[in-house]
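Sample 3 of the quickstart, ligand flavin-adenine dinucleotide:
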Amino acid sequence: MTEQHSSAASGSPFDDLAATVQVAEPLASHTWLGVGGAAEYFCEPISVESLAAIVSRCHEQSIKLRVVGGGSNILASSDGVAAMVVSLAAPAFCGITIEGQTVRVGAGAKLVHLVSETVQAGLSGLEDLVGIPGTVGGGLVGNAAAHGSNLGQRVHSVTVMLPDGSTEERVREDIAFASGWSSLDGVIVLAARFELDSDDPGRLTKRMQKQWIVERSEQPSGTRAVAMMFKDPVGTTAESLISQAGCRDLCVGGASVYATHANYVVAEAGCPSSDVKELLEKVRGVVRERLGVELSPRIRVW
Ligand SMILES: Cc1cc2nc3c(=O)[nH]c(=O)nc-3n(C[C@H](O)[C@H](O)[C@H](O)COP(=O)(O)OP(=O)(O)OC[C@H]3O[C@@H](n4cnc5c(N)ncnc54)[C@H](O)[C@@H]3O)c2cc1C
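Result:
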């Protein structure tokens, strides 16, 4: 592990807080790719107060803080991650409540649960996003998108935690959403409120099921050790550019391009994160050289 904080050896800087903190928690089991070393510190806080205590301690002691959602868009370094990694998987962060056309959801809730609950309640606006893995928090930070819809479109407001542990509400007008990006990067997303439209639950369910089938047919099957490599450039898809550039068969060590859906990387068990990183650079370089297009990485490298 790089840049270890010296206090780890003599007890963690979080010992006096009412939170369970793991030291040297393997991150492979928290990410889809299943590669990578350990997080220096890891915590699943059970309440906002407990999270705030962790966050402000990190701020005071200059310990880097990262959030893992579903881990479907993270490549963790095999050298380890010198940071406190928090997961908002506890029930306090995963609730979904629906009142009329207003939906309040915790950042740790799975996006697929949010979509299916809103569809069952006869609310439209999120059904196109049904097959996207991960959490609402991760989806908001990266503005998850599919079939012409994106998560940011239906946001009314987002509750965030700042580095000092305080919370604030950000309304839609104060948040920028773009392709594969939002201005929520850099804060902790705690919860969001969406305003949706009323529709017929039967019709919505059919539409959701159709999108689910389409989305699954566009994803690698038979393995979970995958990640989406690049964002789609305006007017085209990363997959078509990668194919046109002849990168479908590229591999580096245990990491290879998934030939059928070429914007995915697949990692073999035990593959070092550097193989995945090198493969991404290789694909990017070939696309640049042959097609003159600069692909922008989607996956977050830790
Ligand atoms: C098979 C497959 C299919 C995919 N299909 C799509 C698709 O159709 N469309 C699409 O847009 N993406 C797709 N993705 C990419 C990925 O699923 C999305 O980007 C997803 O929204 C990531 O959510 P997550 O919870 O897994 O985030 P993570 O991978 O856990 O994290 C991603 C980033 O968000 C940050 N983050 C997570 N939660 C929070 C929080 N609460 N507060 C602050 N920061 C947070 C993390 O720190 C990290 O920087 C796909 C990925 C895979 C593997």
